[in-house]
Amino acid sequence: MSKNPFCLVCNSQTEFFFEKFVSETNSEIKLFKCLKCGLVFVHPMPEAEKIQSFYDSNYYEKPGFLVSFLQKFRVKKLVRFPKGKLLDVGCGNCSFVNAMAEKDWESFGLDVSAESEKHFSKKVKNSLHANVKKIYFKPLKENNFSGNFFDAVTFWHVLEHLTDPVPELNETKRILKKQGKLLIAVPNIESFSFRIFGKNWFHLDLPRHLIHFSPESLSKLLESKGFKVKKISYFSLEHDPFGVFQSIYNSLGFKWNFFHNLLRKRISPFSSLGNFINFLFTLILFPIVLPVSFILSFIFSLLKKPDTFTLIAEKKFS
Length: 318
Hints:
Helix content is 35%, strand content 22%.
């Protein structure tokens, strides 16, 4: 009898998919794939208290110039729809909530991370646009939103962090208006980058990414939960070129996610000789790796096998 877990979503049989040793947990993390819906997920799932420890105090730190530039591409996904009430689940540093507020949307944000709440109180709270109505720090269902309240709900690279996406999607359907828009952006486990880089793929991000989707598996899940998929976008300037870029450096033997951690201010290039050597060779290879990353990410996008994808769905009429 198989010892493999049953699928988190459809309770079907699974097969072993992939494993990787992760230094943060000092253990091998195993992933399994559903034979029916294609969902890929970590098993066993870490406990809730352990998950919180995976997010350090500067997880929400991003270079200001990048945030303001890249938010424009997120905003473009929704501004063509009629303005209304928007909820950004997993709002982090509230940059997207603020950007939508500036476009005259009544914006709400939600995040359950303790570090996010600390970051909000220290650096965000006093700089919010007037159209930002409220930021919540409870799980989605615990906020008791009215049914049919929001015109749009967004999950920007959030669903992959959850132990079970079904309760979130059920609650999202309840609080969305009829034909309300659901936007989800996630890494693509069927990407060419994962096939090429494997354990060195930047967006694998174990132990934080607990569930891995493909366009097909996420579409199946949404259809089963009362949504109709309207559009899938196969290129993200925010995530795809950088995903290839950092995956290349990881594969070349550089310190794990070195450039990404520099941008997030988690490490200093001058704190140790090892960091300085990594920094020096990162700069030397930068003029080669950067254009190669953009070229590959565009090719992967054209072939519909990008590092990440963005899906827009609509709540079906009941």
